Amino acid sequence: MRTKLSYAAGLALLAASTIGFAGPSGGSISGKVTYQGTPARQKPIDMSKEPGCAQQHSTPITTETVVVGPGNALVNVIVYVSAGAADESSPPSQAVTITQKGCQYLPHVVPMVVNQELKVVNADTNSHNIHPLAKINHEWNKSQPPGTPPFSEKFEKPEFIPVKCNIHPWMHGEFAVLNNSHYAVSGEDGGFSLPNLPPGKYTITAWHESYGDQTQDVSISGNETKTINFVFKAKPY
Amino acid sequence: MRTNKSTKLLIVVTALLAAPVLASAQQMESHVGKVTGHSESGKQLFYRYCWGCHGFRGDGNGENWLAPGSWLEPYMNIQPRNFVAATFKCRSTTTGNLPTDQDLYNTLVRGVINSNMPSWITLTDQNRADLIAFIKTFSPRWKNDKPSDPINVPPETKLTVESIKHGKELFQKLECWKCHGQEGFGDGPSASTLTDSNDQPIRPYNFAVGSRFKCGVTNQDLYKIFITGLDGTPMPSFADVIKPEDAWDLVHFLRTLQVTHKSAELTLWGSTKEGAEQIASRKVSGTPTGSGIKQ
After folding, report:
1. Does the residue B247 lie in any domain?
2. pLDDT tens string A161-183
3. Euclidean distance between the first and the last CA atom of chain A, given in angstroms as a whole number
4. Which residues form the domain of A59?
5. B218 with B253: CB under 8 angstroms?
6. Which of A158, B26, B119, B201 is the most buried (most CB within 10 A)?
C-alpha cells in the first residue's frame, strides 16, 4: 500500500514538473569525455613535398588520430543522440563546412545530418582532391584546384566516413552523417553539451575515430541538465 | 514428437542460410543497344567464366585473387572488381554514380589493359548483356539509386599546336603532375604513397609506355576519364573545374606524353621545335603498372 502511494506521489510530481516546465528549450545533457591510460604518440607530419603548406606551420603539425587536452581530456569525440529522438525528415538549412588549409582538414571531424549541405572549401594555394571513403553512401572523388569556388555535396544515409586527399597522404578527416541534429564534438577540455532535448528516454553515443564508441542511457523529464561522462581506454599503439 | 533443441536450431540456421539465396534471386535486366539481357541467363555464364576471379559472391575475392599478406603469393596484384560495393572505374556518369549498361558492356568487350581482366569478345552480344544483367543483382544500388545521366562529351575541338600548348599549361595548373609526373611517367611526388579505396597500393597511369588506357583507346575515352574520375581510385573527377574546350586541349596534350604511340597529336607536336626537343629528350622509364619507377 505504501509503495503504491509513493509511486503515485512520484508520478504526480513528475507530471507536475513536465506540465509546469514545458518550455521550448527543454532539458540538456552535458559532460566530459576523458581517457585512461597512455594514448599513442602522434607523429609530426613531413610536408616537404608541398612547400606551400609546409611554410604555413612554423612547427610541423602532428597526426590527429588521438587529440588530447589538459586533465586527460579527449578531443574530437562526437557525442550524439543515437536513440530516442525522431529522425529529422528535412535537414537543417544551414550548411556545414570543411576547409582544406595548410594541407589539413579543418575541423578534423565534421558531424552533419543526413542530406544536410556540406560545403567544401580549398583555402590553400595548391590543389587538393577530396575523397570521402564511403561504403554505405556513394563514394565520390573530386579535384579542387586553388581559387575555385567551394562546392556542395550531401550524404543520404547515416555513416561514419573517413576522408582523405590522395595527393597529400597525411591528410585525414572524418565525416559523421547522423540521423538528427542533437550532436556535439568534445572540445579542448573534453566537454560537450546537447541542449534542446524534449522529455524522453535517450541513448547517447560517444564516438572516437580510434577508440570506437560507448553508449549511455539518459532520461530527461523537464528542463533539467543531466551530466554524463565518458571514459575511453587509451592504447599506446 | 517433440521437436528437440537441436532440430529447432537446424531449422533456424537453414532458414537464415536460405535467406541470402532468396534475396539474390531478384531478377534484373540490362539494355545494350537493341539487346536485352536477363540475369537468370547471365548466372550460369558468370559461374562458368567470371567467378574464378570475381568470386561466387561477386565481391572480387575469387580464388585467383589472394589478398595481400596471404601465405601464397597472389596470382594477380590488381584486385578484381567488387560488384557488391558497386564502385566502378570506367563510366560515362559523374563521380559517385553507377555506370550505364553500355559502360559495363564496353568494359567486357575491351577488357581492362594492364590487369588480368581479358577481353570477352569471344562471347556473343546476348551473353554479354546477360552477364551485365547478372552483375546488377549483386548490389541493391541498381534498384534503389536514381538513374544517373551519362555526361555530355562535346565534339572534339580542332587539333592545333596552340591547343597542345594550352593543354600543357592545364597539366601544370591542375597539378596532374603531382601524381603522373612532369613527363607522365607516373612518378610524381605523390605517386609512391597512392592507395586505392581498399588501402591497396596503386600507381598512376604511365603515359609513356602505353597506348591504351584502362577505360578505352580513343580521345573521347580519355576525355571521359578525367571528367568522371575513376571511382575507387585516387583519380578524381575534374568535371567542376575544367571547361569542355579546355578539356579537349588537355586531351591533345596528354597524347603527346604517349611517346611510344604514334598519334596525330604526337606527330603535330613533333613537327614543332619545342615538341621535337621534348620528345627526343624523353627517356622512357617504368612500366604501365608502375613497377620499376624509382621514387
Report:
1. yes
2. 999 999 999 999 999 999 999 99
3. 58
4. 25-233
5. no
6. A158
A107 preceded by a cis bond (ω within 30 of 0)? yes
Contact B45, B127 (CB under 8 A): yes
Residue B51: inside a domain: yes
Q: Are B155 and B170 in contact (CB under 8 A)?
A: no
Question: pLDDT, tens digit, for every residue of A182-221?
Answer: 999 999 999 999 999 999 999 999 999 999 999 999 999 9
Burial class (CB in 10 A: 0-12, 13-18, 19+), A102: middle
pLDDT of the residue at A168: 97
User: ipTM, 2 decimals?
Assistant: 0.85
Chain A residues touching chain B at CB-CB below 8 Å:
49, 126-127, 129-131, 133, 135, 138-145, 148, 151, 166-169
> What amino acid is encoded at B263 in this protein?
S
CA atoms of A210 and A69, how far apart (whole Å): 16
On whether both B173 and B265 belong to a single domain, the answer is: yes
Whole-angstrom distance, CA of residue A32 vs CA of residue A230: 6
pTM: 0.86
Domain containing residue A74: CATH number: 2.60.40.420
Residue reference for cell 591542375: B174
Quick count: other Cβ atoms within 10 Å of Cβ B238? 25
Interface test with A, best of B93, B148, B178, B235 (most A CBs within 10 A): B178
Q: What is the mean pLDDT of residues B20-27?
A: 58
Q: How many domains does chain A have?
A: 1
CATH code (residue B173): 1.10.760.10
Beta-carbon separation of A139 and B97 below 8 A? no
Whether residue B279 contacts residue B194, with contact meaning beta carbons closer than 8 Å, is answered with no
